[in-house]
């Protein structure tokens, strides 16, 4: 999640999984707090074991069950998480948060109709739930984009439809979200890189520069769904947005790229500026499409020299 939902190259990204539930009944909070502490320490298996022990004696504790479902999401066990949240909506239909999180998980699989239905159920329980309103608007935008793309597939020369699709892309090109967050971390500009004072902008990199070739190789690996080559384009110290660890981010990318039946990624109009001898900044339009979605976003990528090759050290959306 974080901010506004958007379909991006990083995959589906929007105001996401709620990690804290206002209004959830606090029953035997101490075991839940222990599990939450283990989550923050990255010990997901330990957190799951702790919450399972608690639920074995208190199987109907809503806060414990909600926490368990969040752990399953972090472990990329989305089918189990969907079942857990669905069970919560059945047993606690007055709580809007499980419906919202179901919508996030459905949207990650491209099932926008189910995501829409879950968000409407959340709003039926709490019409003032701002996150659900925001997510529902973004789901409607995703549904509209899918419909426009189907129309273009049937009539590629329809300039009106193409204009509407471009207009929709501009409308949704705000700050993006990452799953599992409710803050605007990705909207924060990347940290400044210390450089020597200069009165003029740094020169653009030549079109045949090895850095640009590395960027093209990254897009090509993504297009052919070669996950190993795609991940190899990133530096060992790459810092994912959204609070994910590098290991969590790698597993998330493997799952999302592996799930797609087809992917096409194009780097359009790159503007590459040399920061210093070891660092570059690249701004470009990323034209992404798969069997379920299509998206155009402005991306900024920072590259650094690692072992004689250019590697991605940071990427953000503008």
Number of structural units classed as domains: 2
**Which strand order does the major sheet show?**
3-4-5-6
Q: Shape, please?
A: globular
Q: Any idea what the CATH superfamily of the largest domain is called?
A: Tetratricopeptide repeat domain
List SSEs in N-to-C order. Answer: EEHHHHHHHHHHHEEEE
Largest sheet: 4 strands, antiparallel
Strand content: 15-25%
Low-confidence segments: 1-16, 18-29, 174-208
Spatial extent as radius of gyration: 21 Å
| Text of the CATH class of the largest domain | Mainly Alpha
Q: What is the CATH T-level topology of the largest domain?
A: Serine Threonine Protein Phosphatase 5, Tetratricopeptide repeat
Average pLDDT: 75
Give me the CATH architecture of the largest domain, please.
Alpha Horseshoe
Helix content: 40-55%
N- to C-terminal distance: 16 Å
The total count of strands amounts to 6
Secondary structure class reads: alpha+beta
Count of runs of 4 or more consecutive helical residues: 11
Commentary on this structure:
The chain is α+β, with helices and mostly antiparallel strands. It has 2 domains: 141 residues, Serine Threonine Protein Phosphatase 5, Tetratricopeptide repeat (Alpha Horseshoe); 126 residues, Nuclear Transport Factor 2, Chain: A. The chain has 11 helices and 6 strands. The longest helix has 25 residues. The two termini are 16 Å apart. The N terminus is likely disordered.
